[in-house]
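Suppose a colleague, Dr. K., hands you the sequence of a protein chain of 151 amino acids and asks what its three-dimensional shape might be. Before reaching for any lab equipment, you can write down a predicted structure in token form. Begin with the sequence itself:
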Amino acid sequence: MDKIDKNILEMLQNNGRMTAGALANELGISRTAAYERIKKLERRRIIRKVVALIDPARVGLTCFTFVEVQLERHGREAVQRFLHAITSIQEVMECHHITGEADFLLKVATKDTGSYEDLLLNQLTALPDVRNLKTLVVLSTIKQETAYTIP
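The predicted structure, expressed as tokens, is then:
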């Protein structure tokens, strides 16, 4: 990946609707070259997908939590069972395998605290091999970035 590819990625992270022509103008390359570079980045799965970032509050999502999950066992089969189950829960926005006392950290988005309580009692506590859950409720979000700094 060269400097032009990195510039393309930086620009697309800030404006996913930017056309190959607009990128080409900014970078001083041909539209075809810009288009081919984008396609190559997609084929290499560096660009995984292009999405719209929405304002969660405007669509009724006002409760965000981070949930630390401790499993009973740490073997491959227990982890695989947990991962298979967690992927089907739509409210779970992110699932990270972490170090420390917890095994996983979940980011969860729900309509309100009542909806989170329902999710906790009916789905999260029913996940396979879970020993303990610890919920951290987000009071406010000071910084939330979507663009990565490319080294």
